[in-house]
UniProtKB/TrEMBL annotation:
This is Ferric reductase like transmembrane component. GO terms for molecular function: ferric-chelate reductase activity. The keyword Transmembrane applies. Keywords: Electron transport, Glycoprotein, Ion transport, Membrane, Oxidoreductase, Signal, Transmembrane, Transmembrane helix, Transport. Belongs to the ferric reductase (FRE) family. Residues 1-17 form the signal peptide. It is a multi-pass membrane protein. GO terms for biological process: copper ion import; intracellular iron ion homeostasis; iron ion transport. Residues 520-540 are annotated as: Disordered. It is found in: Membrane.
Amino acid sequence: MRSIAFVLLLPTRPIAAHVVRSGKWCFGSCETVVTYATFNDTSPGSKKARLCEGILRATSLYLCIDEFCAESGRETWLQDANDTCIQRVNATLPPYEIIEQFRPEERSGLKRLSADEAFTWPTLNEVVIPDEEFFERAFTTLDAAYFEYDIHRIYGYVLFYFWAVVVSIGVGSKVVSLIQDLRRQDLHRVTASPDEFNHYRKNYGIPRSLQTLLKRYITVPAAFNSRCSQPFKCCTVPTRIQSLTILAFVVLNIVLCSVGYRLTDGNLYWPTQRDQLLRFVSDRTGIISLINFPLIWLFGMRNNTLIWMTGWDFGTYNNFHRWVARVSTAQAVIHSIGYTIMICERDGLASLMRYLHKTYFWNGELATILMCALIAFSVYGLRRSHYEVFLAVHIVCSVFILVTMYYHVLIFGAWEWNGFVYPCVAVWVFDRLLRGGRILAFNYRVWNTKATATYNPDSHIVSLRVPCNKSWAKPQPGTYYYIYVVDEPLYAHQSHPFTLAYVSTEIERPDLQLPLSSISERPSAHRANSNDSSESDALLQSADSLSKPDSLVFLIRPYDGFTGRLAKRAASHRTSVRVLIEGPYGHTVPLRTFTNILFVVGGTGIVVPLSHMSSLLSETSSVVNLRVVWAVREHAFLASVLRDFRALIDDERIQLEVHVTQDIQVTDDVPANGLKRVKLMPGRPAVHSVVEEMAMESGYDGLAIVACGPAKMADEARKACVAMLGRGVGGVEYFEEKFKW
Ligand SMILES: Cc1cc2nc3c(=O)[nH]c(=O)nc-3n(C[C@H](O)[C@H](O)[C@H](O)COP(=O)(O)OP(=O)(O)OC[C@H]3O[C@@H](n4cnc5c(N)ncnc54)[C@H](O)[C@@H]3O)c2cc1C
Ligand SMILES: NC(=O)c1ccc[n+]([C@@H]2O[C@H](COP(=O)([O-])OP(=O)(O)OC[C@H]3O[C@@H](n4cnc5c(N)ncnc54)[C@H](OP(=O)(O)O)[C@@H]3O)[C@@H](O)[C@H]2O)c1
Ligand SMILES: *[C@@H]1O[C@H](CO)[C@@H](O)[C@H](O)[C@H]1NC(C)=O
Ligand SMILES: *[C@@H]1O[C@H](CO)[C@@H](O)[C@H](O)[C@H]1NC(C)=O
Ligand SMILES: *[C@@H]1O[C@H](CO)[C@@H](O)[C@H](O)[C@H]1NC(C)=O
Ligand SMILES: *[C@@H]1O[C@H](CO)[C@@H](O)[C@H](O)[C@H]1NC(C)=O
Ligand SMILES: *[C@@H]1O[C@H](CO)[C@@H](O)[C@H](O)[C@H]1NC(C)=O
């Protein structure tokens, strides 16, 4: 089947080219050579028949083989050729032994076919043997062609090895950080005094300076320019470590597409080296482009096994997804242009039109066009402003790309190259099945998840309360769920991610279904130190909580689409909405083992510290100093959070610094005055100095900085962390919870 690759553009190639690898293409070379001549003893009809009939042709072929080829593999090759002839034209090749009649001296008297004569496509009435130069040319031609065919695929597989290495590094670093977490925990348990602790740590820790250097220069900073969450010239630039990985991948692709071309003189298929290069480059790029396909699909899925293995978030893989797709598209374009040039060079537009009628050809061209369209429709601007349009185009185009690619490579056989298309389908189906599975696992009576939405115009926040007592998965802090609102027929397919703000573990009460703002009216006099905190209102799920979680609460900021519609529905009164919940996704960052934690959050980013809070303040955690710096526009939002979390916020380990940036006038319902651990401040927070202050306070102890907020804020926090690492505060770890990707 592999020989088809060359037949496609070269109808003059022999059709029965079942080359045996071990024969080093020798038998195929003889066949190529002999096919230049038309022998008199064949019926003048079909071309196919001429390749199988007649004693003259067979004898010439066998004599060539006998003269130029080693014996090993010959039987198999002849068998194959024979079978092909039987299949195609119901004719058999004569037995190999027919050449025994030619004794050596007779052979030397036979006609020698030279290349020059062969190129005139002679009609012959006698047995011929190619002269050595002609045979050598045929042999190097085939040798180079099949060498390329193999190397294209091998180079494509190199990309899999590349990602295997990247993922192994991820798994390795995950294991290392797990060990470090365990050790941090042990240290807290084993050592009593901070001095002892620090001594222990300094002497037995992993080489710290190396780690600090790595963090400072590689893993934490933005690629350049300290812009990571914010777009840079209408694109987004991933973090430095991700950018380096992507850069390595792109460079690897360029290298793999530029080396390993075996160009030969006197090539029979493509006379000039330029032609050979054109053909080989076109093939190489086409093949590597296709081999990239499974990676694109794998990296783009919500349910990506690699996310579970490495602990890297969806955003990271999404960056990889984009870049693999871009590289693959560029390769597809080169492949298509290359082939189009080759075809047009034969006899212009006429041959192009002829090829456009071939299924494999127009499907291939269409696939390239669709890939380009997909990239064009994924630009940052469109993704930002019309996410749903982007998503719909993305899915439709992807389906068509897979279908057209299937037909493009089908001529090589069902598996030869479609072996790279099927995995994409498999990955996609797997993802969709798992999505369904997660929805079922949340509530097996999927139609019956009734959430309560409340919109407060003052705080401009929708709070969505979803009963979760049927969920199999225990809610974890910092995880997020995709929410579908199914009773809006037109939009039921839309799902949007939201971070779990907290789990309310209420005891049976008549007002169980009350929304967030109403719960806060209830007395909440528990101190965090008290023993009865588990019945506290709106309390977070904590490790040692006794009562079963009752409902998940999401705090949602309305924008224009899905969230806007939700707000509109909930605007007038409390509304019951039928939802599907898909999750949890994401993983809990291991904050519990840190002594000092700083959250830098803006707006709805507050859900991240809220969801972690009770776990961080539980007995088993090692947190000593938890500081939350929160920029919020609406006073009412602040007020509701303070009411609901009063019990927790009163813990002495917490310090909450709130910057109300818009409606400054302090109304009476803000209970902040009563809470001594809450500091109200005007204006935006100075992120850099907050980080600096905290880093200086914590000294050599571990400090976790978690940012979740507007892009600029997150970038400032990241930059400040890098600066702290630069000053030798090695214990700083930076985590970012992104609300968009
Ligand atoms: C992991 C994660 C957790 C989140 N947690 C919260 C939360 O707790 N509270 C909260 O208020 N918001 C949260 N968000 C943001 C929330 O998902 C978006 O605000 C929401 O999807 C916007 O929907 P829309 O149709 O109203 O958006 P539009 O008005 O159409 O667009 C607003 C913005 O949201 C982006 N966006 C739209 N749909 C999606 C989507 N399905 N996935 C990712 N981005 C999208 C768009 O690119 C655009 O930038 C979270 C986002 C992520 C990725
Ligand atoms: N459409 C979207 O882009 C979209 C959709 C969903 C979620 N999100 C993301 O979700 C998060 C919260 O959204 P939200 O709407 O709840 O936020 P928000 O209401 O806009 O609140 C953001 C707060 O952060 C402050 N702030 C902004 N930039 C800052 C900076 N550089 N330094 C210090 N403080 C800064 C703001 O102050 P000022 O009042 O002075 O600006 C404001 O108080 C953000 O990450 C946001 O990007 C975005
Ligand atoms: C093939 O050819 C043989 C005779 O050469 C004939 O008997 C046979 O029926 C043919 N088979 C087919 C399928 O044409
Ligand atoms: C091809 O097959 C026929 C019959 O099956 C056999 O007689 C002949 O020897 C074979 N030729 C070769 C070259 O194997
Ligand atoms: C065979 O080929 C020769 C040319 O080499 C031609 O002159 C001759 O007529 C042909 N004979 C038959 C029987 O076709
Ligand atoms: C789950 O909660 C609902 C009310 O929110 C209640 O009717 C139902 O019985 C509860 N189910 C279980 C299994 O606890
Ligand atoms: C909690 O209860 C135990 C006894 O069950 C008591 O010894 C302890 O002092 C209580 N702690 C607080 C903070 O009330």
